[in-house]
Amino acid sequence: NSGVVCLLRPLLLDVVPSIRQTTALALGRLADYDVELAEAIVKAGILPQLICSLPEENRYYKKTAAFVLRAIAKHSPQLAQAIVQCGGLEMLVICLEDFDPGVKEGASWALGYIARHNPELSQAVVDAGAVPLLVLCIQEPEIAVKRIAASTLSDISKHSPELAQTVVDAGAIAYLAQMIPNPDAKLKRQVLSALSQIAKHSVDLAELVVEAEIFPVVLTCLKDSDEYVKKNGATLIREIAKHTPELSQLIVNSGGVAAVVDCIGSCRGTVRLPGIMTLGYVAAHSEDLSMAVIVSKGIPPLCACLIEEHEDHIKAAAAWALGQIGRHTAEHARHVAVANALPTLLDIFVDAQSSEDLKTKATLKNILQKCTYLPALEPLLHEAPPSIIKHIIGQFSKVLPHDSKARRLFVTTGGLKKVQEINAEPGSLLQEYINTINNCYPEEIVR
Fold first, then answer.
1. Per the UniProt entry, what is one GO biological process (predicted)?
2. pLDDT at 303
């Protein structure tokens, strides 16, 4: 408000280097504060001045100038675009080749803030020739430079298969994979994130990541003390598992499913989410893979998530995963039913507080259409709403005609009585099911 920005502008051209540098630092801190201040600095025409003298300046000024560009770029795609239009990318790429690690780090950070907004800006960073230099940066001895370069490669890769392919073509995967065992947690987070962003786009890219021999070493990340390392490790496994049965089988063979199950059991909140999704994706591919999740004791922790978690989207993921496990055969559905998941899913489905997405995921339909384990279905008869009752009655109508013991139990537990209380539309599928059940018994028992 006092017009400081306009007063600072001429000081960027001062003959004393320390004044130029301190001025840039002041502008960077102003820009970092909020979007309006960043816009004011751009409108004042300061960017061209800041950028034009960069190559001749000392390393302290270069670091500070990179900070200003990062502080402006972080707020919006429009501000990042203003930096691109002023020729900022070319200068930042020159800084990536600087001898000083701090300058490389600052430039890499600014490029990441520009690339993360959208595919167009990310493409502009690629076109400026940043990717091969960023791959060189992840090979630098300084941990800070490695971290930021890996983070920037992640930001570039996330938008599209083409951008991820550019990172792959520069040879990034091999160097990233080598750093998974690094003891530095912050570096591991960024490395796992970058590999996830590459693997998520297509089967081919996921296979390239797997070929870098990330298994079984990536499984150690699921036991890491750092929550974000755990989460990013599970996310990487999820992005590989989702593509094909073959990739999921590879995860199973390397002990990945058991490791994910342990991980879900040992943490809480959003850290669990990618692990939950992984089990769902693996189970969805085939009967055998679903059975691998069951054998690895994947059902109990998913049931625990339904009870322990408060966030609807985490519960929805767990409900979806259980549906993927139980939807294949009667045997699969029985395992889910025996774990007592059905009453919990029903409670969530009828709860007025549940979000629409959660209700959709918790419908039980996938499991009920295969479940012939009557002891688990019977308690649901007394509480389920009409939309679910028809699936339960349908399963009873399949089993009771062929199982005399089940028929006797169905009378003594009050199941048959409950069936008589249901008002079904004449000629509907539900009425057919009820008739089939009633035909299993003498008329006086039905009455």
1. neuron projection extension
2. 94
DSSP string, 66-125: HHHHHHHHTT-HHHHHHHHHTTHHHHHHHHHT-SSHHHHHHHHHHHHHHHTS-HHHHHHH
Q: How many CA atoms lie within 13 A of 359 on its CB side?
A: 11
- Residue 128: the pLDDT is 95
Query: pTM of the prediction?
Result: 0.90
Q: What is the number of other CB atoms lying within 10 angstroms of the CB of residue 174?
A: 13
Give Cβ neighbours of residue 445 (< 8 Å, ≥ 6 apart): 411, 416
pLDDT at 272: 94
| The predicted structure's pLDDT at residue 388 | 85
Tokens of 106: 């600052």
E strands, 157-304, are none
Which pair of structure tokens corresponds to residue 234? 């599970």
How many CA atoms, within 13 angstroms, populate the side-chain half-sphere of residue 377?
32
Write the CA distances from 219 to 133, 235, 262, 281, 392, integer angstroms.
30, 11, 11, 17, 40
Asked whether the beta carbons of 301 and 263 are under 8 A apart, the reply is no
Report angle CA 126, 33, 76 to the nearest 5 degrees. 35
C-alpha–C-alpha distance, residues 180 and 415, integer Å: 56
Q: What's the pLDDT tens digit per position in 201-247?
A: 999 999 999 999 999 999 999 999 999 999 999 999 999 999 999 99
Do the beta carbons of residue 240 and residue 277 sit within 8 Å?
Answer: no
The owner of tokens 């008739």 is 435
The rounded radius of gyration (Å) of the Cα atoms in the chain is 29
Residues 41-91: pLDDT tens digits?
999 999 998 888 777 788 999 999 999 999 999 999 999 999 999 999 999
Give the chain's residues under pLDDT 50.
none
Q: How far is CA 103 from the centre of its chain?
A: 32
Q: Which domains does the chain have, with CATH numbers?
A: 213-371 (1.25.10.10), 373-446 (no CATH)
Name every residue whose Cβ is closer than 8 Å to that of residue 385 and which is 6 or more positions away in sequence: 349, 350
Q: What pLDDT, on a 0 to 100 scale, did the predictor assign at position 381?
A: 84
